[in-house]
Structure formats: structure tokens, C-alpha cells
């Protein structure tokens, strides 16, 4: 845990007592703050009280006494409308911040020079974050991994000289971190997302820009217009800027040509690494992720040889294009994290013959945008509530069956792939749907897939 000492002896209000919120409250208490915490869920309040966190209904307290208001990222700050606690904080003139802001203040106070890499973007954040942390750890560095990737940032070990932090940041967290100042900040890409919480695409982009604007080195993907303009602005403001691309040749920066990552400087470029043969970094999207990771690691002093070794040994991100088993020439791929069509596209683009398990709780738009990948699909196995709608979209373009359950889908897909004489096929769970009709979350769904693969006779597990 990182005790939050920056509010020692002062009163702090907190709203949101889920996983990261409770960890934040405990870190504040450990640092000597006088915390008053609340949550709209009575069970969360009871759990926090049992854990030693002081709680009270924030409608009944004196807001003028608070030095700060800490808001959990899941609680609305601006859209669709501010949470009632936000209105109370504004009325009292109380600063509103989040857990990442508390972390950066502790780092500044205790170890301002310890390397800190922050990663954001609409897609690819988690893979890039995990890849950077893996390279650092494999090189023998003291590495802390957390943030939006699933480990609350204030549960990490406290800042000290020589300790490296790799933190994935959501737009919600950035919005609550006004002094975010990573050593290297990454903005991978921007496409419409979370607009229910940010109102407009421009506001969403403005929030993401803050991460790289405050960085020592700004690493920015320039394949979309919003990000390209951000790169230009932060560079004009005097920030060292490294551009990355998977679509364009760059005069300066890192760019991909197929599986090859080239490093350009002064108009000349040379091969930095070829990702061919690294199964966990297949596809153009992973070339961009790798380019960002390389740029960040170089910015904090990692050698090219150390980076090459880390890339080659990367085990992949759990539930994201994760090869989990093999039987003969058939590979089994867990892409359960693909909870919408856009998220499923990278996996579908990375294999040439796919036995595709899809479905669950459908998202708006279904799978119509995945039509360009339909020629790659040998057969689809449809599960969950989305099955009838997905069947209608596939129509005559792709052979399919409505399997109903994941267990049935895995068994049938494995059998069909095993009879395929083409060779080199993939049985892939890439649902393009949320999991909530059948599973608690995508992690549970992915673990279930792995369990069903493990039960197939003759499969060699890769994890």
C-alpha cells in the first residue's frame, strides 16, 4: 500500500467504495488523513466500516471542513450529470481528485525521479501496459504495475528511487488527475468511447490529451486525426514528442511495416525489431502496441537488447488474443476481453482460418462492422442472447450454428477444426459482446473457455 501522506491531519471526503475506492480510503487513513467516506450502495458502506474506514452520509456533513474530495472513477463527474456529491463539492469550493492524482502527489513528495510510465488510449491500453511492465521486469528492474489494468494504484509499493511504475489510466482517472506528470506518457489512439460520460468526442479527446501534455516524453499514435493534432500541439508546447504509427511511414518516431518495427530519426530509418514469430504480438494493432512500449522503455533508459529480450518472452495479456492451447495445427485463442465488435476486430484480423465463438449480451451495432473478416471464418458458433441477431447478420456469408452455451461451442468448434485438412486454424473465443447474460464478467468467461479447452483430449496447454 502507498500511504497517502499529503493529506495527513486534514479532512478528506470520499465517494465510491468499490475495489479501488476502498483501497484509496484505506491508503488515506494509513497516511493520517481524517476520512469521511460514502457510497450509494449500503453494502459497500458496511464493508468499508468493517475495514476501519470512517463513513457518513455526505449529505449530512460540513463540506467547508474538507481539504479535498476524492471521487472514484466509476462515479460521474460531468456526464450524463454530475453525481450529487460533485455538486456539493463544487458549492463548497472543494478540490475534486482521484486515486491517480493521490499517487502522483506521493511520488512527487517522496521519489520525484522514480520512473513513471502512464498509458491511455481507446484501444490497446492493457496490452501495452502489460508489455512495458514485462520488459522492465525481465530486465531486472523493480517494477510496479497497476491502475485501470485491474490493480488499484494505491495498493502498489510506495515510491522510492529506482522503482519503476507502469500505470494504465482511463479517461475517468485522467479527468480526476490535474497534475498528472509521468516520465513517459502514451496516448495510443482515439475513437468514440465513453461519450455517455464525457458528452462529446472533443471533450473525451481533451481529457486524454492531458496525460501526454504533462509528460516528460509524450508518445502519441498518429493514425487518427484527433491524436495527430494532439501530437502537434504538445510538441509545439515544448514537450519531447515521439510519434508512433502502424499505417504511415514517419520521418521521426517508430512505425510498423507488417511485423517489422522501424525507428526513424532525421529522415532515415532502420529496423529496430521484427515481431514475426511472437504469437502474443500478432497483428497490426500489436505492432502499434509494441512500438509504443519500445518508445516508453527507451525513454526510461532500457537498452535495445533488453527490449528485444522482453518482447520475445512476452506471455500475452490474459483474455486478450491469448493462445491457451494447441492440438496438432489448431491453436485455441482466448479473446474474451473483446466485448464489442471493434475489440474483436484485431483478433479476427490476425488469423486466416477461424472457428469463431461469438455472442453474449449484445452491444449496439452488433457485428455488422466485422463483415470484412467474414471470409476468414470457417464457421461461427453462437452463444448467449446475441445468437439470433448474430445469425441474421452472418446469413449466408458464414456457416454457423447456434451452440447456446460456451461448453457446447468449444466442443463443436474443436471437433470441426480437428477435421479441417487446411491446417493452421484457430478456435477463437472473441465474443464481440458483454458477458453478463451468462457470466459475471469477461474474466470469468475467459477462464471458463480455458477450462473447456483443457478438457479436450490431446490438447497441450500453453498457459
Automatic annotation (TrEMBL):
PROSITE patterns: FOLYLPOLYGLU_SYNT_1. InterPro entries: Folylpolyglutamate_synth_CS, Mur-like_cat_sf, Mur_ligase_C_dom_sf, Mur_ligase_cen, MurD. This is UDP-N-acetylmuramoylalanine--D-glutamate ligase. PANTHER family: UDP-N-ACETYLMURAMOYLALANINE--D-GLUTAMATE LIGASE. GO terms for molecular function: UDP-N-acetylmuramoylalanine-D-glutamate ligase activity. Keywords: ATP-binding, Cell cycle, Cell division, Cell shape, Cell wall biogenesis/degradation, Cytoplasm, Ligase, Nucleotide-binding, Peptidoglycan synthesis, Signal. Cell wall formation. Catalyzes the addition of glutamate to the nucleotide precursor UDP-N-acetylmuramoyl-L-alanine (UMA). Residues 119-297 form the Mur ligase central domain. ATP binds at residues 121-127. Pathway: Cell wall biogenesis; peptidoglycan biosynthesis. It comes from Ensifer adhaerens (Sinorhizobium morelense). It is found in: Cytoplasm. Belongs to the MurCDEF family. Its main location: cytoplasm. Residues 1-25 form the signal peptide. It catalyses: UDP-N-acetyl-alpha-D-muramoyl-L-alanine + D-glutamate + ATP = UDP-N-acetyl-alpha-D-muramoyl-L-alanyl-D-glutamate + ADP + phosphate + H(+). NCBIfam families: murD (TIGR01087). Gene3D superfamilies: Mur ligase, C-terminal domain (3.90.190.20), Mur-like, catalytic domain (3.40.1190.10), NAD(P)-binding Rossmann-like Domain (3.40.50.720). Its EC number is 6.3.2.9.
